[in-house]
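1st attempt posting a full record on here, be nice pls
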Amino acid sequence: MTSNPSEHGKTAPTLSFFTSPLSQEIRAEGEAKGEAKGEAKGIVKTKIHDILMLLDGREVPLSDTDRHRITSCTDLHTLDRWFARAITAGSVAEVFGDDVSDGGQ
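the predicted structure (as C-alpha cells):
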C-alpha cells in the first residue's frame, strides 16, 4: 500500500482505490444485488400475507402447522400456486394440493 506524508510527518495510506472506477463498479454491483434480494424477500412476504388474508376472509380454517407451512415457504412459485388455489379452495388441503415439497424449506 502506498503512503503519503501527512502534515504531522507520519504517512497515511493511499485511499485512491476506494474511489476508483473499478471500486465504484464493484460497489454498485453489490448494492444492486442487495436491492434485488431485499425486493424478492418483500415480494415473498407480501404473497404470504395475501394468502393468509385470503384464507381468513374465506373462513378457511388453518392449523398452526398449516400456518407455519405457509409462513416458512420462501419459494415464490409455490406461493403463487397456493394463492391461485386459495381463491377457490374450501380447505387448506385444496390449497396445498398435491405439493410434496414446500419449495423453500
